[in-house]
Each structure stands twice: as C-alpha cells, then as structure tokens.
C-alpha cells in the first residue's frame, strides 16, 4: 500500500518542519508540498498530486478558509483537513462551509494524527472529542430558530446522523441499525438535502449546533 501524499499549509516554518518530520519518520505518509499561506498553496496545488491537505486557518496573505473554498471549488475531490489551535473556534463552521472534512488539533499525539489522516483520506470526516466540545461551546444557537428537529428529520435519519457523528462508515451503521448499507446511503443523502449540508463534516456541525449529539 502506497504512503499517503500530504500537503502542509501553515505560516510557521518550525511547525511545518516538525509535522513533516513526524509524519515521515513515523511512516504515516510523505509530504509532497508545503506553503506558508493560502495564495502560495493555490499556486502550487494544481501541479501536485496530494491525497490530503493539512490547512492552517489563520495565515497572512490568504487565510485557510478562503484557500480551502477556492481549492475545493476548483477540485471538488480535494480533501482538506484544518489544523486548529486554541482561539480558532469562531472559524470552525466557516472552514467546514468552505469544504474542509474535519479538524486536527496542532498539539495532537502521533496516534491521533495517524487516525485523522487515514479517516479523511478514506472519505470520512474527523473531529476529536475535544474539538467537538469547543464547537458546542461556541456554536450554541440552533440553525432552525426553534423548530423541532423531529419535524425536519425522521427518527431513523436522526439515528443515522448520530452514528455519522460517532465516525461510523455506512457499512458499520448498517450493521448497528440492522439495515442495508444502501439504505444508510439513502438516509445520508436525505440528511444532506434536508439540512442543506455539503458533506459529512457539515452534518456533524449541524448535529452539534442543534444539540442532536453531545460530547
């Protein structure tokens, strides 16, 4: 199995070097590109094949939100995971709306870094419980202005949404709920449509904001 090809975007050289060394020395993947800001990243990414972009949020010249939005619009298949630190909480939802598939704390341990990278490359979203607790604290107002979620989503859709938040795949959700993977896929599609979410990461944010799940 080939190693994951990663692109790191962060304005701190020491952090980039440290993360690159950690990823490569531990055999998690190979760093195929680096940038110190969003603009430089956009100039490079079209000529580099990367499985995943690790994107800082706050950077000079162009921030991670704008860079992610433009990159994903240009290449919808591009996978981006935000690199987060204390103080970034207000940008979480904007980063997800821009197209990021999840968040990784900058001070995460090697096991979590490896798990996060594999999870997003495999097509799922990734949030640590610590990040979700921060999101709950900072995104406390429901989206639906007092509407009962049960009037928007069916009981089964809510069950599927909870398991998506738990990080389960379609097959794992199917086994747990005793339904087919194809049925789960249908529920996931309905969830995206009813909530106006663009991906699983957006669904997680929706569930947290509307207090469907708690961490």
UniProtKB/TrEMBL annotation:
Protein name (database record): Response regulator transcription factor
HTH luxR-type domain residues: 146-211
Organism, as annotated: Plebeiibacterium marinum
Modified residues (4-aspartylphosphate): 56
InterPro entries per record: CheY-like_superfamily, NreC/VraR/RcsB-like_REC, Sig_transdc_resp-reg_C-effctor, Sig_transdc_resp-reg_receiver, Tscrpt_reg_LuxR_C, WalR-like
GO MF assignments: DNA binding
PANTHER family linked to this entry: TRANSCRIPTIONAL REGULATORY PROTEIN DEGU, TWO-COMPONENT RESPONSE REGULATOR
Domain Response regulatory: 5-121
Gene Ontology biological process terms from the UniProt entry: phosphorelay signal transduction system; regulation of DNA-templated transcription
Gene3D superfamilies: 3.40.50.2300
Taxonomy, superkingdom: Bacteria
Pfam families registered for this protein in UniProt: GerE (PF00196), Response_reg (PF00072)
Keywords, comma-separated and alphabetical: DNA-binding, Phosphoprotein
